[in-house]
Amino acid sequence: MFRKIMTFSLALLVLPATAMATSFHYTWEQPVGFIQMDAYASAPAGFMRFCKANPADCQPDTNPRYVILDAARMRDLNTVNMDVNDSLFFNTDLAGRDVWQYPIDGYADCEDYALEKRKRLMDLGWPASSLLITMAEKRSETVNAWRYHVVLTVRTAQGDYVLDNEIRPAVSWDKAARLYRFMLIQTPQDPQIWATVNGHQNASIDSGTRVR
Q1: How far is it, in rounded angstroms, from Cα 110 to Cα 117?
Q2: Alpha-carbon distance 202 to 153, whole Å?
Q3: Can you tell me the distance from the alpha carbon of 186 to that of 131, in angstroms, rounded to the nearest whole number?
Q4: Is there a contact between 40 and 194 (Cβ–Cβ < 8 Å)?
């Protein structure tokens, strides 16, 4: 009788765990949607100067490819984002200058962070067509105003993820939209061709919201 009771009790313990396992999904397995592009727009002048200095990094791609996220690919995004964020010190350009470049001497501003992350992911085999530099506006923490900001949007088969120098992990674009108003984004077909972002997609922004 005791053996039967023990067997039944173990079955009760196993069944809920099995049910939970069958319903569990990693976050990257769920579709998160895409940042919607509107009309074509002029690329930032600073980025065009970057392309003139680094033409090999600005080639068009007539056959855009999107990576299917799995544990290894998601690790790529988080590792690159955190490594670049941890290895560089933030330093803004001088007033009146907007220099887009790979980081020099361990210093960078937001667009330099994005360029470095793009390069490192391409070195890991990610296609350039899936790595879209994105301009946004962020509410200033000190004054009631918006300031210019640049992040890297990674377009995957499951949707868009954002790599940001102010957010430690890679996050889905809709989470980043709680903090930013997306303005311009590169097109997958050509990094030198940009597009405006559909303003209706941007979430209402609470300046007190923090994304971890």
Answers
A1: 11
A2: 15
A3: 8
A4: yes
